[in-house]
């Protein structure tokens, strides 16, 4: 019966999709391609009298297979994407974008630009209004390629000799790319979202032509507008811009404070800590200690010599002055149950000594202050350093031994 036929078809279709999924997971691209071919052919055969467009599943699966298949060629990929464009009105622009990305990955920049230009001029009734944001994204990527062309012309101009006519021609062409890029990049960053690459390029254009106030406005909007999602990079770009402009330490610290609140493990926390340590204000120096302790909570910082040097330097200053030992105690109380194994084990002492003696010295100082002269890490490193007759390690051992009472005060 007709119902039985439909039921059997549904089962076979689901089984075929299951086989495709299994092949994809096992990276068996040839097998996946064969099953997908069967899947598409069965759809055409069973529904030849009905108008059925290809599902997004076929587009996604087919793209993945063609991207990884060893025998896949660019011509075949282009042909597949053109078929997906013509048969999927609602996702036409998405398919165009994916096609452009593939062209760019294969170094076909001119073809990518041409595809973007064609997509930008695409119109289809009410779909045009519905896909307005996607049109803006298409325009933004075209602006990005215009920026790349502008950047190439800028490089030529800067490397040129004193040929006035040649310089003028290059400068005119460069300015043409600037206008096209600026218009499209400016539009996309008005829409709330994460637009890192577009913002960076637009700011670069503005800075080159001396539009520093507008660049500052763009970056402030990107970082502080509550309509935009929280984005650490927005604060990184603002900080880097302020630094290039020679802004005050107060402005730089303000930008990094927000970054610290969002991503305490960011690499710029070294810069942040350094600025805070140099401050004359006690509150900021206290924050500096919090910042470097927080950064070292993360595994990616375990062997960061600069970070341990920052912490060792500040801890040493506090111990010598015997002021603000409560700052160290406050930070250590919440970490003493796990930092010992995380940072100061005997195994790590041996490895650090073998790989980076400078790092091991900084860590040993911190370990000796926080855990006392009987700490495994400190004992191993100081012994190895003295055994090797390294003056630095003899001084380290004397310092920690002399200030061992500090450990008793910190440990409570």
UniProtKB/TrEMBL annotation:
This is TAF1A polymerase. GO terms for cellular component: RNA polymerase I transcription regulator complex. The lineage of its organism: Eukaryota, Metazoa, Chordata, Craniata, Vertebrata. Pfam families: TAF1_subA. GO terms for biological process: transcription by RNA polymerase I.
